[in-house]
Amino acid sequence: MASQGSLGAVSSPMVILAPKTKTKKKHFVQQKVKVLRASSDPVLGVFMWGVNHSISELNQVPVPVMLLPDDFKANTKIKVNNHLFNKENLPGHFKFKEYCPQVFRNLRERFGIEDLDYQVSVTRSPPVRGGDGPGEGLLLTSYDGTLVIKQISSEDVEDMHNILSEYHQHIVKCHGSTLLPQFLGMYRVTVESEDTYFMVMRNMFSHRLVVHRKYDLKGSLVSREASEKEKVKELPTYKDVDFRNDMQKVHVSEEQKEKFMEKLNRDVEFLVKLKIMDYSLLLGIHDVARAEREEEELEEPCMEEEAEPENGLTTAPAAGSYGTSPEGIAGYLNSCKPLGPGEFDPYIDVYALKSVPEAPQREVYFMGLIDVLTQYNAKKRAAHAAKTVKHGAGAEISTVHPEQYAKRFREFIANIFA
Fold it and tell me: Which residue intervals are annotated with compositional bias (Acidic residues) in the record (predicted)?
């Protein structure tokens, strides 16, 4: 069995896993389920194999009574050489590393995601490629649309390690009820001596309700407008100035607004404490009437589950992938719980809110905080000084101190509601 990484010294009876071990060379053992059809992309093939392998291995390891400090530094590694199985999908040599497996297992549980469902959603069919965002690596969604798989940098991995303990404590305190990204797993894939890093998160948008309009809101009006190049995209990301100009509002009940702002304030306080800034509220809007019209235009009603652009991505469930067991995060919905237009399961679409009956049109809003790894460091301070010189000290630039950023952000978001 592959080593399960560094977990604690021998002093505690709760330490379940061995101390950090050196990478073992391992010949490939055939899996019970052949999970890969990603031969066009060896990195993706190894990623899917690795997640499948790591979850299967983790299932053999008892859940620790409590997480220890070493769990937040732990990792598991596997090196595969000259394997013979599944050669059409996997390169001959590769390495796979999972960061802090026990911590992410614990987070998945707190977010109500079972490991086997997570495993199926990531590995049953290849994730669907989206576009490369500005300054970002690859962005993918799982085949069933419930997860986002984001290529990140080695610096992001380091930033994540820096906040993981505090992030975990925050999730424990708020019982998993948060607008922050739900971080579910972090991995490194090495193919031909090149490292690629991935973060898996819950999709803030729906796996079944198409997002028709999308905003990235920071609470700043300086240079916060979608470019002409952005506006011609199929699903452009609009910004604060566009939101104002569109006279856009979020029409939810007073009670929903209060609950939302309570979550937002708690999460933002957490980010201030960690000196994090430059985060955004991602807002996606599903227009129920438009979705119904689009569905009627389709010739066959059974095409409802076909690929539709969401989150700037397309989610295309593989043929026959719904309603089989194990189901994946959203798989059981089709067979057991048919949903009508504009309806969603709040246990899956955790970032969704419905518009009130008296709203101008029936809408579903998806709102969550994104880009939460940017700490206020020397680089940011320099950017702030440069922008202050350019725009003047009073201008609403996005690069300001974390406390100022949070105050302005909260005020702006409080005013997006009707």
Answer: 294-309
- Name the residue among 65, 77, 57, 137 with its Cα closest to residue 106: 65
Q: Residue 330 in contact with residue 231, Cβ under 8 Å?
A: no
| Number of Cβ within a 10 Å radius of residue 323 | 12
Q: What is the mean pLDDT of each run of 10 residues along the chain (418 residues)?
A: 40 39 41 46 93 95 94 95 77 94 97 95 89 61 94 94 97 97 98 96 94 95 93 94 95 97 98 94 96 79 44 38 59 64 91 96 97 71 55 55 94 96
Give how far the C-alpha of residue 408 lies from the chain's centroid of Cα atoms, to the nearest Å.
25
Radius of gyration of the chain (CA): 22
CB under 8 Å, gap of 24 or more: what pairs does 56-60 form?
A: 56/31, 56/119, 57/1, 57/2, 57/4, 58/4, 58/101, 58/105, 58/115, 59/115, 59/116, 60/1
User: Which pLDDT belongs to residue 144?
Assistant: 92
pTM, to two decimals: 0.80
Give catalytic residues, as residue numbers.
Answer: 150, 278
One-letter amino acid for residue 376 of the chain = Y
Cβ neighbours of residue 220 under 8 Å, at least 6 residues apart? 240, 396, 397, 398, 408
Domains of the chain: which residue ranges?
36-203, 208-292+341-417
State the CATH architecture for 208-292+341-417: 2-Layer Sandwich (3.30)
Cβ contact 316:140 at 8 Å: no
Question: What six digits make up the tokens of 18?
Answer: 């061995």
Q: Does domain 36-203 have CATH number 3.30.800.10?
A: yes
As a whole number of angstroms, the distance between CA 175 and CA 158 comes to: 25
CB within 8 Å of 32: residues ≥ 6 apart: none
In whole angstroms, how far apart are CA 109 and each of 114, 116, 171, 265?
Answer: 6, 11, 11, 24
